[in-house]
Specification:
Chain B: Keywords: Membrane, Transmembrane, Transmembrane helix. Chain A is of the alpha+beta class. Chain A contains five helices and three strands. Chain A is elongated. Chain B has one domain. The longest helix of chain B is centred in the N-terminal third of the chain and has 46 residues. The two termini of chain B are 36 Å apart. The chains are: A alpha+beta (110), B mainly alpha (143). Strand 1 of chain A pairs antiparallel with strand 1 of chain B, so a sheet runs across the interface.
């Protein structure tokens, strides 16, 4: 699958998602409608503070929405992708897929 | 931003697939359990109607139904750590279909003359009321 525009697929990568932890958080949330903070932390295998920073950055980019609530008396934080975040992740994954397939546009000799 | 090599990109895609599988495994069991309990408990309640011995029997069946559903709700709310993408729509469909069959069936069965203890009415209805919950549970099962 090659890009009909001839543009290198790296241009489809999203800088806000590209970092490994951000990518893992986005991948988890893309599969979920909503996921609890602890569930994402355990899956991505990061500390609470690193996940908080990552979520803040993704929230600032408009990709993640945070909802705080309670189950009984226990506070819980729920994370979800915004529509914009879902679209951005889908585009990022499509670009990765193109790169993984090795279908890069030919390099022109200049 | 460094451009990933094809192998790095493939590794990232594999990581995304792993995350997807993890959500599928984790998110399905509580909703599936709730919907299965709802379907079976509703069928049990309806099956109890023709065999219940008077109001006390009907009340006992209703209490068992209420306790089963309440227990399933608690497990659903407390144990849930994630929900699969599209869960609200699927869950809403299952609950809407169940509520419609349950409400109409119960209203007709308890108000129409001669139906209160007629097995020919309640048994097919019991099977029907179980369908939305069981289909919904099957769709939510971890895969």
């Amino acid at each position: 699958m090659s890009d009909p525009s001839g543009e290198h697929p790296r241009h489809g990568l999203d800088e806000a998602i590209h970092a490994p932890v951000r990518f893992s958080v986005m991948a988890t949330l893309a599969a979920a409608e909503e996921a609890e903070f602890g569930f994402v932390r355990d899956g991505v295998q990061v500390s609470d503070s690193l996940l908080s920073k990552t979520v803040s950055a993704l929230e600032k980019a408009g990709y993640v929405e945070v909802r705080k609530g309670y189950v009984g008396k226990r506070p819980r934080t729920w994370l979800r992708l915004s529509n914009r975040g879902r679209a951005a992740f889908a585009a990022h994954v499509a670009a990765l897929r193109t790169i993984a397939d090795g279908a890069l546009p030919p390099v022109s000799a200049e | 931003m460094s451009t990933p090599t094809p192998s790095t990109a493939a590794a990232l895609l594999a990581r995304a697939a792993d995350a997807d599988a993890r959500v599928r495994r984790d998110a399905g069991s509580q909703p599936a359990g709730f919907l299965a309990v709802l379907g079976c408990a509703s069928a049990g309640l309806f099956l109890a109607q023709p065999v219940a011995d008077g109001d006390r029997g009907v009340l006992a069946a209703a209490v068992v139904f209420g306790a089963a559903v309440l227990g399933a709700v608690l497990v659903l709310v407390i144990g849930r750590r994630s929900t699969r993408y599209g869960f609200s729509r699927r869950f809403g469909l299952a609950m809407g279909a169940w509520a419609a069959v349950f409400a109409v069936g119960l209203a007709v069965g308890t108000t129409a003359p001669g139906l209160a203890h007629r097995a020919a009415f309640w048994v097919p209805l019991a099977l029907l009321v179980a369908v939305p919950g069981l289909v919904g549970a099957w769709r939510e099962l971890p895969r």
